[in-house]
Design a protein that fits this description.
Strand content: under 5%
Shape: rod-shaped
Largest sheet: none
Order of helices and strands: HHHHHH
Distance between the termini: 67 Å
Oligomer: single chain
Length: about 130
């Protein structure tokens, strides 16, 4: 197996970790800014847990896509025939990863909208602007 393929495999394994850390940083930023009541705090903490489980799950699913048969990806005798017979269908794994990533991104992008609007309505009520 070539060195380029090994580097590509390591980079692919790191993608869930990078995206998970980015999502968690946004959620913790929201928690710092919008911690206005216990419900919002519990929701954001719960979603940080969901993102953490998502990250760990897809990280290990990517690493162990061939089970404990690491020789299939790293060995000198690896071939397309060995990969298809010993590994899961990575198309399904990639599709599940992409769908879950999109859903969590949409939720994370949508979280501040009701929080900002409620803060804005409180500001308008207090200052009458």
């Amino acid at each position: 197996m070539s060195t380029a393929f090994k580097i590509e495999f390591v980079v692919i394994c790191m993608i869930p970790l990078a995206l998970g850390c980015t999502k968690a940083s946004f959620l913790l930023f929201y928690k710092r800014i919008f911690s206005i009541n216990a419900k919002v705090d519990i929701f954001l903490t719960g979603f940080v847990v969901v993102v953490s489980v998502w990250t760990i799950g897809f990280f290990f699913a990517t690493i162990f896509e061939c089970g404990m048969n690491f020789w299939v990806l790293w060995g000198t005798k690896s071939s397309g025939k060995n990969i298809t017979s010993h590994c899961v269908n990575t198309q399904h794994l990639s599709l599940a990863f992409g769908i879950a990533d999109f859903i969590t991104d949409a939720i994370i992008i949508g979280i501040p909208i009701p929080l900002v609007s409620s803060t804005l309505s409180i500001y308008i009520t207090i200052y009458g602007c």
